[in-house]
Amino acid sequence: MAIISIDLNDFKIVNDTMGHNVGDELLCDFAKILKLTFEKYGFIGRMGGDEFIVILSGHDVTKVKKIIREFNNNILSFNTINNKKYKISASCGYAIRKKDEIISLKEVYKKADKNMYLNKRELKLASNNKEVISK
Question: Residue 57: phi, psi to the nearest 5?
Fold first, then answer.
């Protein structure tokens, strides 16, 4: 089982500079990308504000990274073909609980969330637009 923690980057800036109506539109567009990417693999939930969670069953590290890459590609495609006032960007982190591992879902989520914040920091430090996936 894997958990992916996802945070919409710069959402507050969009709300503060473009207004809450545009922020709401951004959230709706982001939800469509989440659904397009993750619905076929597992459960999608909103933790609050601009934070989301995806729970996947039976996936290994390679598959989880492939799914996150698909998500990043879907965001890139959205930004390329849509003429919006904003560009969507997200940070992702994941954690995997192996079948024989005795660890609560809460602990798996905490690891995924910690990794998401590491990814957010790495993206801010990156000097180019290369893809960064934090475990």
Answer: -110, 140
